[in-house]
Amino acid sequence: MRKLLIIFFTCLLPIGFLMGAGFSLGEFGGRSAAMGNAVTAQAYDASTLFYNPAGLGFLEGTQFYGGATIIAPSAKFVGAQPFMDETVHDAKEQIFPPVGLYVTHKFNEQFGIGLSVTNPFGLGLAWEEDFPGRAISKDATLQTFYITPIVAYQAMPELSIAAGLDVVLSSINLKRNVLIFNTEGVPSTGTEVAEAELDGSANTALGFTAGIMYRKEKLGLGFMYRHSIKLEADDGTATFTILDGLDPKTAALAQGALQDQTVAAELNIPNYFVAGIYYKLTEKFGIEFDYSWYGWSVFDKIDLVFKDLGVQTLHENYFDEYQLRLGAHYDINENFSVRGGFIYDRTPQPIESVSPLLPDDTRNDFSFGLGYTNGKFTIDGGYMYVNIGERTTVEDGVGKNDNNFNGTYTSHAHLFFLYLGYAIK
Amino acid sequence: MKKIIIYLILSTCLTFFITCGLEDPTQPTVEGITSNQLVLLKMVAIGNSLTAGVQSAGLAHDFQVNSYPNLIARQMNPGNVFEQPLIDDPGLSNTPGVGVLDFVNGEIVPRGTYTNPMALLLNALLPRPYDNLGIPGANVNEILNATSSANGPTMTDLILRNPNFANTTVWEQAKLLNPTLILLWVGNNDVLGAATSGGDMDQLAPTAQFQSDLVTLLTELAKIRDGNIGIIMANIFDVCDIAHVNLLDNLIYKTITLPNVGQVYLPVIFDNQFQPVDFDTTTGGELYLPLLTEEGILAGGSPVEHLLLPFLGEYSENGLGVPDSAALVPLLVGSGIPPQMAPGMAKQLELAMQAAGLKTSGIPIPVSLTLTAAETGTIQTRVDELNQVLQGITSQQGIPLVDANNLLQQLNSPSGYQGYSGKFVFFDPANTAFSLDGIHPNNGGYALIANAFIEKMNLFPDIDITPLDPAQFKGQYVGSQMNKISLEAANQVKALFSRSKK
Question: How far is CA A133 from CA A185, A309, A315, A357, B227, in A?
């Protein structure tokens, strides 16, 4: 059943890469994303289940909200001189359409329930076949699916609290070429013999989320927390495809050493909290400022435990970091609203682990969008430009990458989002 | 109007961002290394015992740290990873169960014994081929083709570790490592066996075969990194001018006048200080007794030019080559003593030799322990031919060639080379460049060779490796007054390059 669920969600919700520092994602609502995700102290639609579940207490009736974000990322790499030439390598063009699906129902003045499906952590980055770092990563995909039932309690008209259970399904797929007999720490040694594909679905993991929101006529205060998750995939498979063109002895060596086998993987997803303050400056214009903190230090490594090949550890050693979010909306009239936002998102990735698997950097995200409401129906659309910029693993003339694969990456992404809502009040 | 302005602003923003192309990243530069210096990134050494770091008749970890490739690797960068098949004590020699040679109380003796050679391999589980792929005893053909001790020298299994590496050869294992630089010193074993066997010319590699094998080997190595690889080679020693062969030259030779032959230059009976013994007790006279040899002038052939090191063990232990009275009689008669007087004089001389501490075996030195002038000439001619092949191929392919033979000649010159001499350890323990087997260099000798390679490496653009200070390698045998090699040790040295026909 769990696999079926994963297949279902994999088809529906392939998620993207590089939208939040590390491998976090934050764009799960049309209005929210347009406001730079700075909505922790607001409750306008059912996507509040993701941004601050306590917002559920302020929603009325039964509401449906859902949509997708089309993510078009780009990344480039050039290797460090003198080890590599000046060729610029492009990542494969990929499109990721993560979605957020929500339903809420308010039973009475105090209690409400909701259900959300989001994927707040994930990554996907694929490189071309001739990419020089293909022995580190050719194609990496991590997908998480948070299915979150939530209960909210409105203790006072101005105050709501909520908590929910995160049921997390996930899968991981890593492809890279296998290098044998390389000399540790010395780039470009050894012999490339096979492509390895590691594929696995993690055991269902449980976490929780909670929030509190205070709203007055003009002021909103919000705080939400999402707990960390440990993803454990016990029954993954490692499949090895011997490369064409090897001489017979090398092929025999590879075949002897690289038998298809089971692999277990384990990695930690960080906890995070967001605190926000919203103020409605005029009847039509409101702004919010959020501070979010991610406990990325739990993402210290990925252990890959092969049945026959032993343990391989990918060292990540992330550190805790924060985001600053600023969002604003201007309601042109009762139907139309325009929004804008900015996110300053600090990378948690140390220079040593910047690699083809995930070349991260501090980003500046610019977003804007439009909303249209007509009775029960709502439509929110918008755009976000994620400027990740340039990150190099060479510092003061010294190559710092753990694998001695040094160079500079540039990356950015265009996000287009469209969400629809329907409210029965 | 307000709506239109807002929409225009949003449209402009959207257009602006969407048209933002991703800029190409700026190529960074890792400092401290130039593209020309990349050749030093990954070094692999291919060869025989000289590459493996053999000293004193075998491989042992304390010798291997001073192998010339390892010395170079350390000099390139002290943190360099250069993996060798390190052998635990007592070391491995070609004599099954017996370790390398040491000197104890002035005598060269085996360091110890072992039962399982594979158990001595300290880093047997290294999950890749070794960077030092020197196989003691390997000739060029074996470096090209051998995959195990069944079709190669005894230590092939230990170094190549097949079938774990899919029965790959030396060059195939080197290729798997994908090196940027290969140090290649081969060919000595294509001639050495002829010298150390006392002139078994079957052990001389045919020049054409040597050339063919070498070209094939270089062709395969040149395919690594699509030809973007550095190779440095060294030529072949004059194997008749190494300490193992020339240690007694001149020292124990005397000119003797024989009535029917004339003046001949022969090795004679000598004492434990390697001084010829004069058995004439009369004033002004001298009587040197020639050693018995199976070949040489007295046997009607080419004169014995060299007595090989293993002979010393047999000489001191069993009196090999020392004539008894029966053997002396024809010698005395041949030198003009009346036949009727010869037996009596022979007996007196035998008693005199015994009184001098010599064992009078009457057994001539076998041909396997002597090299005649003719044999020496044949071997040296082949060395020259093979070195010409090496010179031609390396010159044609632009491969720097270390003149190891010239280094040996300088060592053997009266002034020596950089404070070192080519003498056997008995005769110059403080300065010798040879180890206890007289064939392989000692720590200092390997340092000299490393410097010769470094000199060639420094010809590459941007390469400037600091040479080793050879003086720092001196003192390996200081404090020992060695003048004796045990019979066991001598046999071990003898076995070092005895090659079975495969």
Answer: 14, 22, 16, 9, 22
- Each residue of A23-70: pLDDT tens digit? 888 999 999 999 999 999 999 999 999 999 999 999 999 999 999 999
Contact indicator for B240, B231 with CB cutoff of 8 Å: no
Q: Domain range spanning residue A129?
A: 2-424
Q: For residue A409, which residues of chain B lie inside 8 Å, CB to CB?
A: 25
Question: Which chain B positions have a beta carbon within 8 Å of A180's beta carbon?
Answer: 128, 176
Of B18, B30, B38, the CB nearest to A399: B30
Would you call the peptide bond into A157 cis, given omega within 30 degrees of 0 as the criterion? no
C-alpha distance from residue A271 to each of A160, A208, B306 (Å): 22, 10, 83
CATH number at residue A42: 2.40.160.60
- Least CB–CB distance from B20: residue in A79, A330, A385: A385
Token reading at B221: 């190595």
CA dist B279 and A412 (Å) reads: 98
Phi/psi region, residue B137 (left: phi>0; alpha: psi -120 to 50; beta: rest), is left
What's the structural domain count of chain A? 1
B28·A252 Cβ contact <8 A: no
Q: Measured between CB atoms, does B6 come within 8 Å of chain A?
A: yes
ipTM of the complex: 0.87
Decide if A338 and B81 are in contact by the 8 Å CB cutoff.
no
Report d(CA B221, CA A247) in Å as an integer: 15
Question: What structural domains does chain B harbor?
Answer: 36-245+373-496 (3.40.50.1110), 247-370 (no CATH)
Query: Per residue in B117-163, pLDDT tens?
Result: 989 999 999 999 999 999 999 999 999 999 999 999 999 999 999 99
Nearest residue, CB atoms, B30 vs list A250, A397, A410:
A397
pTM for this prediction? 0.86
